[in-house]
Amino acid sequence: MTSEWMNDPALAGIDRKKLEFLQALVFESRDLQRQQMLPFLMAVAKRGQADHITFSEEEIETIVDVIKKESTAEDAATIDKMMRLRKNRG
């Protein structure tokens, strides 16, 4: 995924620092093996806390909608599944 998604007008109200954080996350995780993902995500969560980066529910939904527009049908289905799991846990 290129950084073009960050220019979507729907994201205009979201702090650019948050979007750059997500973009870095995508690039850094690109070549990880499945077993490396959990330690990576835990480290990312710590980094986000250290940088005081948090997302409101509305921001999450908006970002997910924009990313899905740039995704393949298969990736969009995976995102939908992850979001359903996330909501069921909350």
Could you explain the architecture of this structure?
The chain is mainly alpha-helical. Helix content is 68%, strand content 0%.
E-strand count: 0
Shape: globular
**What would you report as the Rg, rounded to the nearest angstrom?**
13 Å
Report on the biggest sheet.
none
Q: What structural class do helix, strand and pairing data support?
A: mainly alpha
The percentage of residues in β strands lies in under 5%
Q: What is the residue-mean pLDDT, rounded to a whole number?
A: 86
Order of helices and strands: HHHH
Fold blueprint:
Blueprint: H1 16-29, H2 34-50, H3 57-69, H4 73-89
What's a quick, concise take on this entry?
The chain has four helices and no strands. The chain is mainly alpha-helical. 3% of the residues are buried.
Summary tags:
globular
